[in-house]
Design a protein that fits this description.
Order of helices and strands: HEEEEHHH
Helix content: 25-40%
Strand order of the largest sheet: 1-2
Structural class: alpha+beta
Strand content: 5-15%
Length: 96
């Protein structure tokens, strides 16, 4: 058993956060909303199926991930998230 096999739990099914499909872990890619997938201690990863992963932009996103976390993405309802997201973006623009 390789080190990667011990960490990946490749036999478990995961749900793609992009399209909602349930796929085997071995057919998915880890997504770390904190932007540091190599620092694994205490983290629970989300997953993207391979087609959704290929569609992702892999360029820097200028603090997008931290803005989404600060706006409580995935933790509050859509209206609450959008309200908080726009507040954060407006505050950031005012500071520039």
């Amino acid at each position: 058993m390789s080190i990667r096999d011990r960490f990946s739990n490749s036999e478990d099914d995961v749900t793609c956060i992009g399209c909602g499909a349930t796929v085997p872990r071995s057919e998915a890619r880890e997504y770390d909303k904190h932007g540091d997938r190599w620092s694994r201690d205490g983290k629970r990863f989300e997953y993207l199926c391979k087609p959704c992963y290929r569609e992702c932009c892999h360029q820097p996103r200028d603090e997008l991930e931290s803005t989404l976390v600060d706006a409580s993405a995935g933790e509050v309802d859509r209206d609450g998230f959008l309200r908080r997201y726009f507040e954060i973006v407006a505050e950031s623009a005012a500071d520039e």
